[in-house]
UniProtKB/TrEMBL annotation:
Residues 74-87 have a biased composition (Basic and acidic residues). Belongs to the ATP11 family. InterPro entries: ATP11. Residues 97-113 have a biased composition (Low complexity). The keyword Transit peptide applies. GO terms for cellular component: mitochondrion. This is ATP11-domain-containing protein. It is found in: Mitochondrion. One of its GO terms (biological process) is mitochondrial proton-transporting ATP synthase complex assembly. It comes from the Eukaryota. Residues 74-125 are annotated as: Disordered.
Length: 357
């Protein structure tokens, strides 16, 4: 007996309507508290005697003392994150409107960030996020850029990092995925739904399927500073293409087709490939209306998808588009989806979307 699939009936038989015109890399899901929650230390077992003595000395209860120590540790971790974010903001200059009422100073805003686009790409340019003048002014190693990229996204959404994924991808890894994606730009991926309504008496797991679509947006130029007098005379870029991946629930797509709203957008920025050998991955979860319940974070922000589901979909992209040893069966599924739809079986897909496999 097959698990219940949360799909339109026409899609349960392997039919998909026309779509719109690692070795895993280190993916960072920026969780609700960006690592600011109190550390999970068993104070009762490890420090019981010391806690009791210190509580008596300070005239407090053990419970009050433990809560105080946890809050002190949380504040120390918060301070470390602020320091990292401060360093990142000197180079990464995206709008701070959601976290601060003040505008970025001219010293931290790249002049090119506000320049009009000269192309038709729908992708937000990396120059609006990274201050290339600051980045190129002092040599930065790929490791330093990776740390800045992570710290920057952890500082979003009032310091919670909610609504974003981020990673740095090795160029070779990205190129392998691109080679596959240009041949097979669409696929479907399941996300488990443990709280879904199923038939009475059924113990079968439920899944919601997402349509994923790759988009390719040309090769960005190598970054230059405003002091580079010859930047406009440089040859065309040799960077790989920038790409995006849209994730839209199949049910949503069936209802609205090309007007359907993607719940998650992954963007691969390739601007730093030639200069630093890095592809920067940025995932943005679409904010939802005030009435939506899914994906609500502790700070009150609401999103169309939970942080965990977004990370799961990003991992699935690697599993199906990064063909390495052990991924032969997943490659067969992806090929069948495009080349032999009649051979594509949903039950086989579910077997290979178990990330523990």
């Amino acid at each position: 007996m097959l698990p219940r699939l949360l799909l339109p009936s026409s899609l349960r038989h392997g039919k998909l309507s026309a779509t719109r015109s690692l070795r895993f890399f280190s993916l960072t899901s920026v969780h609700r508290d960006a690592g600011l929650s109190s550390p999970k230390v068993n104070y009762d077992d490890k420090y019981a005697e010391k806690l009791q003595r210190r509580a008596q000395e300070q005239g407090k209860s053990v419970a009050d003392l433990k809560a105080e120590l946890k809050e002190q540790e949380r504040q120390r971790r918060l301070q470390r994150l602020k320091e990292e974010s401060s360093k990142a903001s000197e180079v990464l200059s995206d709008s701070f409107a959601s976290t601060s009422s003040s505008s970025p100073s001219p010293a931290t805003t790249s002049p090119s960030a506000n320049a009009p686009r000269k192309d038709s790409s729908p992708v937000k340019p990396l120059s609006s996020i990274i201050n290339f003048d600051k980045l190129l002014e002092t040599p930065h190693t790929p490791e330093q850029i990776s740390l800045l990229w992570r710290a920057y996204h952890e500082s979003r959404s009032g310091g919670t990092g909610r609504g974003y994924l981020c990673a740095t991808v090795p160029v070779e890894t990205y190129q392998k995925m691109m080679d596959v994606a240009t041949k097979y730009p669409t696929f479907v991926l399941p996300v488990p739904r443990g709280n879904a309504q199923v038939e009475s008496g059924s113990n079968e797991p439920a899944y919601e399927f997402y349509l994923m679509e790759w988009g390719f947006h040309g090769s960005p130029p190598e970054p230059t500073t405003t002091n580079d007098l010859f930047s406009s005379f440089k040859a065309s870029s040799s960077n790989p293409q920038t790409s995006t991946i849209l994730f839209t629930p199949l049910q949503e797509y069936k209802l609205r087709q090309s007007f359907a709203t993607p719940y998650l957008v992954l963007t691969h920025y390739t601007d730093l490939v030639k200069t630093h050998g890095l592809v920067l991955l940025r995932g943005e979860i679409t904010p939802s209306g005030a009435s939506a319940a899914a994906g609500t974070s502790e700070d009150g922000a609401r999103f169309m998808m939970s942080q965990q589901d977004a990370q799961l979909l990003a991992i699935h992209v690697q599993r199906f588009y990064l063909w390495n040893e052990g991924s032969d069966e997943r490659a067969v599924l992806l090929k069948a989806f495009h080349e032999r739809p009649s051979d594509f079986k949903w039950e086989d897909l579910l077997k290979h979307t178990d990330i523990s496999a």
